[in-house]
Write a structure and sequence with these properties.
Blueprint (H helix, E strand, L loop, with lengths): L1 H11 L18 H23 L10 E11 L4 E16 L2 E15 L2 E10 L4 E10 L5 E8 L5 E6 L8 H20 L28 H22 L7 E8 L7 E16 L2 E17 L2 E9 L6 E10 L2 E9 L5 E6 L8 H17 L1
Antiparallel strand pairs: 1-2, 1-8, 2-3, 3-4, 4-5, 5-6, 6-7, 8-9, 9-10, 10-11, 11-12, 12-13, 13-14
Length: about 375
């Protein structure tokens, strides 16, 4: 979420009154075409708002994705960062495959003790931005509001501001919409890598040299894993009710057209590690723990992944699953070569896919962090 921090910097210099519209490629629509497009946008906005007001009501399951991001920029200076976005979507089927189509995005983020707000109207047919409204308060205390209207090619039709001291641009709002829609597709499609372990489009995280550690026996590796697990759980519990925390939370409410409604919650917990290199000292964010919880009628699954601080290799996997009248629970421990050396529980899973699933989720985490 580097773009949020960049937004804070831009907000600090917003009083310069930098006008960005002069550099914007604008639409070539005639007045009649522009008026028709503006009417289309207003109608679509009203319909989307009405649909959102009924989301999860009248006996229907909600259909949305919640994305929450928390980070600590400077703990001593009490500088924190928070962002929350809700993506509303519909679904239909094409060739027996369910296709999710976002139609509206609401985004909030905190900067310098001020909360900023954005609305994005999305064309569900092609996932393009039709309209964006942005509201925020600057450090100087005045309110900035901007509205951007786009044609079907994504070109600006009209921009409206309540002040010339704006820090947003039509291109910037387009980029933010594409970022969130891309993240939405990644979450709902659920595939970043293939089952054979081939990475698709997700970054694998920062590169760093793994500290040289001597070989451990199975008992030593298991003791190391248990110690790391206990520290992770303690840290997560301590941060649970603090506002200074580092985590990413995704909650997908999917009504489903081909299966019963399901709620999936991912929690990614991360911290900063210091990498000592010959020519520099580098601070990298790393993910140390992920949990996944899925619920639908007659089904409940909870999974945990514990990762090594430097290599980001999977060290421990836990799963508890219940469906109808059957229950499964198992634990898997991994050695320094990434092989499972011990498994306990009553799992019926003969082909463990834990490592690929862990890699998949790490890819999702770093996708959130890198954009």
């Amino acid at each position: 979420m580097k773009k949020v921090f960049l937004g804070l910097v831009l907000a600090m210099v917003s009083a310069t009154g930098y006008a960005q519209e002069g550099q914007t490629a604008t639409s070539k629509l005639t007045k009649e075409q522009k008026d028709a497009r503006m009417d289309e946008i207003r109608s679509a906005y009203a319909n989307a708002k009405q649909k959102m007001s009924k989301n999860g009501k009248n006996g229907q399951s909600p259909r949305d994705l919640w994305i929450e991001y928390n980070d600590v920029i400077d703990k001593a200076a009490d500088v924190t960062e928070w962002e929350g976005a809700t993506i509303y979507f519909d679904s239909d089927t094409m060739g027996g495959i369910e296709v999710n189509r976002p139609y509206f995005i609401v985004e909030n983020w905190a900067a310098h003790q001020h909360t900023r707000y954005r609305e994005m109207l999305i064309n569900p047919k092609d996932s393009t931005l039709m309209f964006c409204f942005r509201h925020g308060e600057t450090d100087a205390g005045f309110v900035v509001e901007s509205r951007y209207y786009y044609d079907t090619e994504g070109l600006l039709i009209e921009a409206k501001h309540n002040t010339s001291n704006t820090w947003s641009s039509p291109e910037g709002e387009q980029e933010e919409a594409k970022r969130l829609i891309d993240l939405f597709k990644t979450v709902t499609q659920g595939v970043l890598i293939t089952r054979d372990g081939t990475m698709a489009d997700a970054p694998s995280g920062p590169k760093s040299a793994t500290p040289l550690v001597g070989p451990r026996s199975k008992d030593q590796q298991k003791a190391y894993i248990r110690s790391l697990y206990a520290k992770a759980k303690k840290k997560i519990a301590e941060e649970e009710h603090e506002y200074q925390k580092r985590n990413v939370r995704l909650v997908l409410h999917d009504q489903g057209t081909l299966w019963p409604p399901m709620t999936t919650e991912y929690k990614f917990f991360f911290d900063t590690r210091v990498i000592e290199l010959p020519d520099q000292k580098r601070h990298d964010n790393y993910c140390y723990f992920i949990s996944e919880h899925r619920q639908r009628m007659g089904f409940d699954s909870y999974v945990e992944y514990l990762f090594d601080t430097y290599s980001q290799d999977l060290l421990f996997y836990y799963c508890k699953c219940a469906e109808e009248n059957e229950q499964w629970e198992w634990r898997r421990y991994y050695d320094q070569q990434g092989d499972c050396f011990e498994q306990t529980g009553n799992s019926a899973d003969d082909v463990p896919l834990d490592k690929n699933d862990a890699k998949n989720l790490l890819g999702l985490f770093y996708k959130v962090m890198s954009e």
